[in-house]
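Friendly challenge for the regulars: who can give me the structure tokens for this chain first? No prize, just bragging rights.
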Amino acid sequence: MYYIGYDIGSSSVKAALVEAETGKKVIVLNEPQNEMEILSIHPDWAEQDPEIWWQHICTATKRAIREANIDASKIQGIGISYQMHGLVIVDKGGNALRNSIIWCDSRAVEIGNTAFAEIGEQKCMEHLMNSPGNFTASKLKWVKENEPEVYNKIDKYMLPGDYITLKLTGEVTTTKNGLSEGMLWDYKENKVADWLLDYYGIDQSLTPKIVENFTNQGVVTDKASAESGLPAGIPIVYRAGDQPNNALALNVLNPGEVAATGGTSGVFYAVSEMSSGKSTRVNNFVHVNYELKTPRVGKLLNINGAGIQYRWLRNNMGNESYEAMNEKASNIEVGSEGVVVIPFGNGAERMFNNKNIGTHFLNLNLNIHNSAHLFRASLEGIAFSFVYGMECLKDDNATINVIRAGNDNLFRSEIFSNTVATLIGHEIEIYNTTGAVGAARAVGLKDGDYSKFGANVSDNDHVMTFLPLHNAAPYEAAYQKWKQELELILTTK
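First reply, four minutes later:
Bragging rights claimed.
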């Protein structure tokens, strides 16, 4: 018997099949083969057609069943991970009314800032544990203000994972996780933050029905079965945003455990006991195992300008492989002989209170420096941004005991991982897992056995551990220089 998991990212849709009993990976693949397009018709806008996600889900599912050579009737349940904070709006027929406004779209920043100022910091931090910010609720308000003819047709708003659930089951539902990602969950009252909807002038009836994780959230319809190749009647059991799900995939479920991600954007996600938010630079979300008696929340520190910085260098400097870039960078000393890269060229940065400071290449000497210096300085700059983010997390009372990371592009680089581990003074455990695998395994958590789940992760996925290096002095010096350059830029923005 098998479980299937999906991870709906902004670059691709990943699908994974795992053995139901052991959690062992059977197959992991992604669609499309190249990256999905992000539409940006204005600066700082980012949209995708949600129907494209569904088409890739169907293609990936059929491929996974075919290439794994399994009997599709033996798939018993579905888990879904998805890009956080996106807005999808549908009419009464369940049809998307416009493109999804996705996570990296910055158009609603001022709407959220104004709400935070007018509602008041105390109420927002006590009830939302965040500022309304540039999240789903604020994006919905933007639609109401700027596209009233579209807004008036809305039957329900939802997150990207909720839309895929709708396509699979025909039912419009959401989760506490999803609502918290949209700044629509009131932690203090343990219900929808209807007062924020009222402030924005949004009809409360647009909120979908809430379903619980690790329970039957709806079953695959005959229509969805015909389109996707999944068996009709199997349940969706689990649904979560990509960062809470990434934490689950890495067995990060208890206070003091931290998940790190080094993809297009960079993330630290620290599980904590629930307490009111303190810093607007850190976001708090309902974690996948949140219960009233054990209210686990994830403190998320996001860095938009991370892997995208390194990818930009690769694409614009001869399109070398990451391995070749890492090799060249390894021949340059710590500190990149003075070159500094400030890697924030991917929109507004939450940890700078939504300032958009851009990417900066500093101190280039055209007689000395070459591409290898830029590769090293870029890896260091991204690593330093992680260290800066960890400082923000600790300021928000996060406890750090262990850090676990996926074996993704940044953490494959020894320069990057050694720099982060050495400067934050913690081991980084590397696991060869993905969000889609985590979502698939989560289907089995309907039995509530978290210890068995964690053992499956350790047994199947642990790759290596990066230890802090003994000689931290050159790393500290390079970080302080980077930080000085960053603070000069921040004072001018």
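The chain has a mean pLDDT of 94. Residues 485 and 491 are 10 Å apart (CA to CA). Your move, everyone else.
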